[in-house]
Structure formats: C-alpha cells, structure tokens
Write a structure and sequence with these properties.
globular; 32 strands; five-stranded antiparallel beta sheet
C-alpha cells in the first residue's frame, strides 16, 4: 500500500488520509498554572470541535472555570510570559500576547513574508524564538515584542527547527532536504548547537556550529533542553499506512558526559492515530502537543496506548536515574488521558471529556465547572 509522508510540525497534520470514526470528541486539558497568594489558577484548553479551541482559567478548589480570552480566538501553543505578567499564544497563524491587566490580546506584527509559525520559545521578557517558513524553508527567528526580527538562522538547503535556548547556547534540529527533486526526501536529521552569547544582526548559513548528534535519515522532532548539557527529543515514523490504528514513537535523551555528547533511547510509546491524523472527526487541534512527554524532577511522564487493545491512553512515569517505568493511571473504556501538569505536589491531567474523570457541568449558580483528575506527586 502506498505510504504518505507524515510530518510532526506544530499544528500540522499534512496527510490526506481518512480515518473512520463515527464520533467527534471534546477535550479538556491543563497547560499552565499561576498563583496569587494562596489562590491557584490553572489555565485549561477546551476543544469543543476539531477546528476550534478555547482558553479557560480554572479554580481547582471551587471547580469553577471562566474564559481567559474571547471565544473568537483559537489559542494554540499557550505559554506564560517569563515575567509572569501574562501569556502568549498563536491564533490562526498570528502571534498574540495577553497581559493579565488588559482585556484584549496584542498582536505581534511581523512584516517579513513568513508562514507556518511553530511554537514560541521565550528567551527573556522581551525576546522569543520561533521557527517558521520563509522561501519554502524552515528558518529560526529571534524576535522582540515589537515584532522586530533581531536575527535569523537559515540554510538554503536545510530546515532549521525546534530552537531551544540553554545558558549561552542555542540548540536546534537541522533537517537536510534532497536537492533537485520535486518530491521532498529528507536525507538527514541532526541536532546542532551554536554559541548565542553575543547579539548578532544576522546569522547566515556559513556560521560555524557544532553538530552534537547525527540521526541520519530517522525523523526526529520536538527537541527539549532542560540544561546546556541535557535534553530530550522524539523520534517518529516518516510514513504511516492508511489502515494504521496507532502511531509509534521513541523518546531519547542526549547528555554531555565529560566533553562528549551521549544519546540513548529511554522508552517507546504509541498514540491512537485518530487523535493526530487529518480528516479525523476526533483529531486534536494542537496535534501531538498535549501528548508530548513532560519532564519533572528526574522523571518523564508520558501517555501510551500500546498496553491495551482498546486504544486507551494511560499515563506512565519513567524514572531516568533508576531506568524504571510505572503506570500511573487506570483509564476506562472511552477515556483518553493526556500528559500532566505539575501543581503543588499534584499531577493534574485531562483528556477526552467524559461523565467520569475529565468532566464539565453547570452548577446551581449557572457557573461553568470543570473537573480535572489529579495524582498526588510529592516534591
């Protein structure tokens, strides 16, 4: 059977496959937490259709939820600002910043011809990185909050993606394209590092850089550095069959040992294909983002459906130091649990909205209420 290329880029499921599901799911999952004195507010994404999401703020004590921004926005890639004064998101390809003391969100106007903007990586209170397409190649941009581009990292024959700032280093994934062929074939995937200690007007393809890992033709994505000497990334299949019910992934760790980078696979996991593939009635608006593994205090929390035949997503915990894995939830038929958020010694998580676990209702005061299940996880 003919295979179709599958690229895990932010918000994009570029397959023209059809996956049969007779139901359209709603999803509810936490993305960030703020505290004001003793009051805790958990920002939660509510997906009411496969083409729209909303942002709500939820009180885990009272269970009452309120809209954090107008429903006219679809706030993908939510991130708190470094100074804690608000948050950023991407709404239909436009970067927005919403401060807590203002009612409306501010658009970051970028006048260069760029498109397919990937998630924002904040550097400080005034600057952030994005990866976006320009001249049909993914380029890394450093931009300030006025929309001015400080510098770019690009290559005529390569994609530069998933920027990660750690200390004075910028890490990213470099994907090389096959030259002179209409159909794109990706020859190699590498993780690169460059010194970002000094401000530069523009970084060109001739810039000296260090390759810390060559993954050859195996597709990798979603680089996440937790320090200048340690990080993680995802390996995924370059193609998927029309009849596949799940998509398999591997999660890797890179770590500096002395003066040498080491790489090793930590675990594998599977995701129901209907949550990610285009043309599915139950796909996630943010694609794989709510399902990515999350690091917390030497442990990685991830979701997996490979342990059952009903494609039920449960949460698992991998201890990096002990190299052990434990299942943390026992989902029932129809339940799908997503990667958790860490709040005051608890793991709050969401997933598919059901009548048990991840729930929504209207209380006697006509307030919208949520329930997100939680697991105790002491510091």
């Amino acid at each position: 059977m003919k295979k179709c290329f599958f690229s895990f880029l932010f918000f994009l499921a570029q397959l023209s496959l059809f996956v049969q599901h007779s139901y359209a799911l709603e999803f509810l999952y936490p993305v960030a937490c703020t505290k004001n004195g003793e009051a805790t507010k958990i920002y939660t994404i509510y997906q009411n259709s496969m083409g729209h999401i909303e942002l709500w703020s939820w009180n885990p004590d009272s269970k009452v939820a309120n809209k954090a921004i107008l429903s006219s926005y679809s706030p993908a890639g939510f991130a708190l600002l470094p100074n804690g004064t608000g948050f950023s998101f991407i709404d239909n390809g436009r970067i927005k910043i919403k401060t807590f003391h203002k009612r409306s969100a501010k658009s970051i106007e970028i006048y260069d011809p760029i498109y397919n903007i990937c998630g924002m990586e904040w550097v400080d209170d005034e600057h952030f990185f994005i990866s976006a397409k320009k001249n049909d190649k993914f380029t890394i941009f450093k931009i300030d909050t006025s929309g001015a581009i400080k510098w770019t990292l690009s290559h005529a024959e390569k994609d530069c993606m998933y920027p990660q700032q750690a200390a004075n280093s910028l890490f990213y994934i470099e994907r090389q394209l096959k030259k002179g062929v209409y159909k794109r074939d990706y020859l190699s995937y590498k993780i690169a590092r460059l010194d970002n200690s000094t401000e530069q007007t523009k970084i060109l393809e001739t810039l000296n850089k260090e390759y810390i890992l060559d993954f050859r033709s195996c597709p990798i994505a979603f680089l996440k550095m937790i320090s200048e000497k340690e990080g993680f990334f995802l390996e995924h299949s370059s193609s998927v069959e029309r009849h596949d019910k799940t998509i398999e992934f591997s999660y890797y760790r890179i770590k500096m040992n002395g003066n040498k980078w080491e790489c090793g696979e930590l675990f594998q996991f599977s995701i129901p294909a209907h949550l990610i593939l285009d043309k599915s009635d139950s796909r996630l608006y943010e694609s794989i983002l709510p399902l990515l593994p999350k690091y917390h205090r030497g442990k990685l929390f991830y979701v997996d459906c490979s342990h059952n035949a009903d494609l039920i997503l449960d949460i698992f915990c991998y201890d990096i130091h002990k190299e052990t894995c434990k299942q943390k939830t026992e989902a029932k038929l129809g339940q799908l649990f997503f990667s958790p958020l860490f709040v005051d010694g608890n793991l709050f998580y969401g997933g598919a909205v059901t009548t048990v676990g991840t729930e929504m209702w209207i209380d006697k005061n006509d307030s919208v209420c949520f329930n997100l299940p939680a697991i105790s996880f002491p510091h």
